[in-house]
Each structure stands twice: as structure tokens, then as C-alpha cells.
Amino acid sequence: MSGATDFPAWSAAALDRVEGALDRLVPADAPAQLGEAMRYGVLEGGKRVRALLVLAAAEAVRGQEAAALRAACAVELIHAYSLIHDDMPCMDNDVLRRGKPTVHVRYGEALAMLAGDAMQGLAFEVLTPDTAEVPAALQARLCALLARAAGHAGMAGGQAIDLASVGRALGEAELRHMHRCKTGALLHGSVMMGAACGAADSAALAALSDYGWAIGLAFQVVDDILDVTQASETLGKTAGKDAQDNKPTYVSLMGLEAARRHAGELHEQARAALVRSGLADTRWLDALASRIVNREH
């Protein structure tokens, strides 16, 4: 899997495409500051890991570029809406996100709720253009993958488990299930949406699915580690919030060093899955796995 040295150039170009598309797709003229709040919540911030996973997986299967870019934007809209809602006082009650005040702090709780609602709807609108650039069957497949990743069996379900687990001592299997839903499902869905934009046999799709689940869980394990090892200024969000809120994490369950080892094990599982896929060029997916596990914010 060569090409790691080219990854900064590839990711910079991919991010430019995603930012440009989001800027065009997220309306500024929605009524009563709604568009302003939506744009504040999704533009100019974030690592765009999910969007990059979509585009990298699509390249690995030689997928349709237009469909992959729309899928990348849709995933980012769903992710941003979830952050807006998660940060609200009724859930995590956080005041800092991506290095700036959270949407409800900036615009108030009611408009923040509506901005998240509107962004969720916009994500599916983005996936179903009136033009012929994305075939109808692919539109339906992308919508199904995103809905499943974001809904009761994925992100929303995981957040419900998270809220119900405050103050409880979860076992490793329970914690893994919570994080697989809350964080892993949308990262896994990003990989599979990218894969849906091209052609791959069942063995390659199964391997990409394994990669997505491994890297999705690794992302959350590293998040748990960073929450106790980095400052708020580095993270762009409030550090130490999980411990403060008495939430179960991989660090609280395993300890810091064991959590770090587990992240490394998941990284190796993800890389092995890429080899098993048999796809000719998975270098960007491989580089993204390394970025996810070795990141410092």
C-alpha cells in the first residue's frame, strides 16, 4: 500500500471539493437565521474524516465521482446535525465545538434544534438530485445506507445508550456495542456508501465492511484517550467532559495504556481487512486508518 507520502495532497484536494460542495449546497437564505445557523454548524471546521472515507472507498472501487461527492456531503451534514443536537443542554450540554461556541450557545436552543433538523433533511435531498448524475437505484442505496447508519440501530440508538449509561459501570461488550452504534455506524456507513458508488464483489465488500467497523471503533477509542490526555484548546471541544459527566469510556474501563493498545489492535484489523479486500488501490483508506489512530485532536 504505497502512496502515504502523497496523502496530504490527495486529502487537501478532496477537502477542497467537499468544502466547495457544502458551501454551494447549504443555503444561506433559509428563513429567520436558519440558514446562517446551518452554515455555522457545518462549514469551516471539523476533520471531515467521514467525507474522506467516502471518497477514499469510492476511489478504491473506481466509483462515480459525482455520486461519491454527494455522499460525502450528505454524511457530513448528518454528522454535523448530530453534533448540534448532542451539544444541547438536554443531552451533553457542551459549549465548545470545533474551537468555537456550539450552535445553541450562538443561536439559542430552538434555532439549534431546527438547524439540526433541517440539515438531516438536506442530507437526503443532496443524495436525490433531480438531474441524472446519480442513477435512481444508487440514490436509493445511498439513502438506505445513510438512514441505517444514522437511525435507531446506529448513531441515534448509540446516543440513547450513552445517555442511559451515565454513572453505570459497563462491561467491555456493552461499551463496544454503544460505541459501535454511536460513532462506528456512521464511519462504517461512510465506507460502505463510497463502496456503493462503484463495483466490488461480495468478498471485497465484506472486507471493506470489516475495515469500516474496525476503524469506526478505533476512532472512538482514540477519542476516549484524547479526552483525558489533551487540552480543550487542542481538541476544539471541552476536554475531560466524559469523566466530569461520569460516562463510561475505554479509558475508564481499561486504563489509558490498555486503551492505547486496543486502538493499535483495531488499526491492525483494519489494515488486514484492506489486504483481504483484494482491491488494487486502497492506499487512501490505509492512510486514513493511520490518521484516525495516530491523531492528536
Automatic annotation (TrEMBL):
Cofactor: Mg(2+)
GO cellular component: cytoplasm
Annotated coiled-coil segments of the chain: none
Signal peptide: none
Positions of transmembrane segments: none
Magnesium found in the keyword field: yes
Alphabetical keyword list: Isoprene biosynthesis, Magnesium, Metal-binding, Transferase
One example GO MF annotation: metal ion binding
Protein name: Polyprenyl synthetase
